[in-house]
Amino acid sequence: MNIVTVSITILLAGIPCGSNSGDGLASITASASVRTAVWGQVNNPGLYYLPGTPDVLELISSAGGPAPGADLSRVLLIRELDRSRTYLNLGRLTAQAEPVFLAPGDVVVVPESFWSRIQRNLPIISTVATVVNLAITITLVSRK
Questions:
Q1: Could you read off the pLDDT of 31-69 as tens digits, one per residue?
Q2: Secondary structure (3-state) at 126
Q3: 65: number of CA atoms within 13 Å, CB side?
Q4: How far is the C-alpha of 5 from the C-alpha of 78, rounded, in Å?
Q5: Number of Cβ within a 10 Å radius of residue 136
């Protein structure tokens, strides 16, 4: 009998797999994986199937790591099983070597940092300040 190891995602996608060496017996064993998602400030957000018992850091690493401007002190973990929401400080958890393991269906959201949002919106803020300054100047000049 042949043993073919296949990712569960391939089985779910319906892709034919397996082999038969002529003995008429073929078997497929699926390696278990955990379906999770990561969104927000990571380099490759999306749905991931991770083998074994992955933790939050493993998921973020699989997504290409945190993007510039990510706030790793306010990472949101949403548990599908009970719809609970937990905010994680990954810096503190890493320093304390406390992994947060993921369950199937968990979603991790990495937010943008406050200063990154300010920097991203600075052109808008600057334009508004210029328009307000111009309006105040015109008003003051027209009163004289």
A1: 589 999 999 999 999 999 999 999 999 999 999 999 999
A2: helix
A3: 2
A4: 31
A5: 10
Q: Is 1 helix (H, G, I), strand (E, B) or coil?
A: coil
Predicted TM-score (pTM) of this structure = 0.64
Burial 34-52 (b: 16+ CB within 10 A, else e): bbbbbbbbbeebeebbbee
CA–CA separation, 22 and 4 (whole Å): 15
Sheet hosting strand 75-78, strand order edge to edge = 46-51, 33-40, 107-110, 75-78, 85-88
Could you tell me which of 33, 55, 37 has the C-alpha nearest to residue 110?
Answer: 37
For residue 16 the two structure tokens come to 């034919």
Place of tokens 């002529």: 22
